[in-house]
Design goal:
It is built from eleven helices and 16 strands. The longest helix has 16 residues. A hairpin with a 5-residue loop joins β13 and β14. The strands form four sheets. Strands 6-5-4-3-15-16 form a six-stranded mixed β-sheet. Helices cover about 25% and strands about 15% of the residues. α7 packs parallel to α8. The chain is globular.
Length: about 400
């Protein structure tokens, strides 16, 4: 997506450098007007989960070429003068027209109250100055999370799976609360999860608590993207009587807009220049769990969709070389060599330990072509290497200049 278009959309929704002097972004206006809870508002003006009635704007289905970038059933605003639906994915030669459509929207919806003297949302001169601007300095901040294994403590009850001796110190509820707090406190643009969101046996109460925190994250304006791991797959058919179908729950989070599953096609991350790609464990995504039993794939099975000029991130959840040796599931070097997309970094899951058990340097290394590869470890202390080490999540700062990292204890 063109960075100029991203900045224009961000300015209108959340405030930014292209917003006209004296104008208030739509997000702030909405917050001022809606004093009730989001769920109550959705019940009054929608289907209980999503707002479907809009008093101030006209909406329509996305353009056919944009439908893969938005949730199923979602609608987009229509420019009030031209009657064209706003685009989602915008190329460089489309950006002027797209911003012109966005500029048609009023500074304040007339359906709610009279204006306060501000005539425009976007300052035309600032938009002109943004044309052709180099975007290398623009940073996207992402909280990188992996292997949360929500429900892990149920192993003490179900007897399913190995457990660490300190299992009584582990709390899924405390972990998800802390992860969301870090994301909000750090004001990251997005959260990316590289799989094993759930453990293989998880109860309804735990899922309800996790869903609440996911909703808090979403309502804070921080979207979450991710892929699923092998334990997420197994949660589809739990053995214990008190466990529930975890895949159905994951699908529900996607449908409610709390989680976006990334794939071999690019997904724009939170309106930033970053595109995220992902291959779930065994190359089997949420919708296909239960349909395919083989969890093996090779690089030749993968064809990545064409990327935008911005940074590209690849998420994986399988045993990889050069992180692993002969027991690796996938040859990462081969995957990158045959890819039509050049990745700025690779984020992996599944390992539950730093490479070579090196807690100083074992969370980052390079693939054969020099691509940075990062792991952040499990977000809970669920493996033996973490007996005397705390779990953490990793904040990534991504720009065209490169990727930097910072760890935050969970």
């Amino acid at each position: 997506m063109d960075s100029e278009w991203q900045e224009a959309v961000r300015s209108v929704l959340y405030g930014g450098e292209l917003l006209a002097d004296g104008a208030s972004c739509y997000g702030a206006q909405q917050k001022e007007r809606n004093l009730g809870k989001r769920k109550e508002y959705a019940r009054r003006h929608g289907n209980g989960e999503r707002v479907t009635e809009f008093s101030a704007i006209t909406v329509a289905d996305p353009r056919p070429e944009d439908k893969r970038y938005v949730p199923s059933g979602a609608v987009l605003p229509v420019a009030p003068e031209s009657g064209e639906v706003l685009p989602v994915k915008v190329s460089g030669d489309e950006v002027d027209r797209a911003i012109a459509l966005l500029s048609e929207f009023p500074a304040e919806p007339a359906a709610d109250r009279s204006g306060d003297g501000v005539d425009v949302l976007l300052d035309p001169e600032r938009v002109r100055q943004a044309e052709g601007r180099v975007t290398g300095g623009e940073e996207t901040s992402i909280l990188f999370v992996s292997d949360t294994h929500f429900g892990y403590e149920n192993r003490a009850i179900t007897g399913s799976g190995k457990t660490v001796s300190w299992i009584d110190e582990i709390s899924s509820v405390d972990t998800v609360k802390r992860v969301v707090e870090i994301a909000i406190d750090r004001e990251v643009d997005a959260v990316i999860h590289t799989g094993d969101i759930l453990d293989h046996e998880v109860d309804a109460d735990t899922l309800e608590a996790v869903a609440f925190r996911f909703e808090v994250l979403s309502e804070s304006g921080i979207p979450m993207y991710g892929i699923i791991g092998s334990h997420d797959h197994t949660s589809y058919e739990p053995d214990h009587a008190d466990s529930v179908d975890g895949v159905a729950w994951l699908s529900e989070q996607v449908n409610k807009g709390r989680l976006t599953e990334v794939s071999t096609n690019p997904t724009a991350v939170a309106g930033t220049p970053v595109d995220a790609y992902g291959i779930p464990a065994g190359n089997v995504g949420i919708d296909d769990v239960g349909k395919f039993h083989s969890r093996e794939w090779t690089p030749s099975d993968i064809a990545f969709g064409a990327a935008s000029p911005g940074p590209n991130v690849l998420c994986l959840h399988d045993g990889l070389t050069p992180y692993r040796g002969d027991d690796a599931d996938v040859d990462l070097n081969r995957l990158l060599a045959q890819s039509r997309v050049s990745f700025d970094c690779v984020l992996i899951g599944d390992e539950h330990r730093p490479k070579s058990k090196d807690f100083e340097n074992g969370y980052s290394f390079e693939a054969g072509d020099g691509t940075p590869v990062f792991y952040t470890g499990p977000a809970m202390r669920i493996s033996e290497p973490y007996r005397d080490h705390g779990a953490f999540v990793t904040e990534l700062s991504i720009s065209e200049a490169g990727v930097s990292t910072a760890q935050h204890q969970v």
